[in-house]
Design goal:
By secondary structure, the protein is mainly α. It is built from two helices and no strands.
Length: about 45
């Protein structure tokens, strides 16, 4: 969260907006990353 707020400050984005939207953005990024990763390979 600290890095996200620092980036927001540097870009002039409202900290409240970042705080509200970051959890949603992180969830979508994780879903997209998981879709691109091969399933069941390299585990165990």
């Amino acid at each position: 969260m600290t890095a996200a707020l620092a980036a927001a400050d540097a870009l002039g984005i409202d900290r409240v907006a970042v705080t509200e939207l970051l959890p949603v953005i992180e969830a979508r990024m994780l879903e997209a990353t998981n879709k691109k990763m091969p399933q069941g390979k390299g585990q165990g």
